What does this fold into?
Amino acid sequence: MRSLSDDERKQVLGEVLHGELKAILEAVGGLQQAAAAVLPSMQADIAELKQDMKIVKAAVTDLSRQSNDHEQRLTRLEAA
It folds into this structure.
C-alpha cells in the first residue's frame, strides 16, 4: 500500500469537503423554503395580534377611566 502524495491528499480532502458543503447547502435551502412557506401566515397572525392589542388597550383605558370616575364618586359620597 502506497502513501498518498500531498496533492492527492488535498484532492481527497477537497472532494470530502465538497460533499459535506453540498449536504449543508441542501439542508439550509430546505430551511429557507420552510421558513418562506410559514412566513406569510406568521405575518398575518402578527397583524391580527397588533389589531387585537389596540382593542385591548382601548378597553383598558376605558375601564381605567370608569374606575377613576367610580373612585371619585365614592369619595364624594363618603365625604357627604
Residues 14 and 41 are 41 Å apart (CA to CA). Residues 6-79 form the longest helix (74 residues).
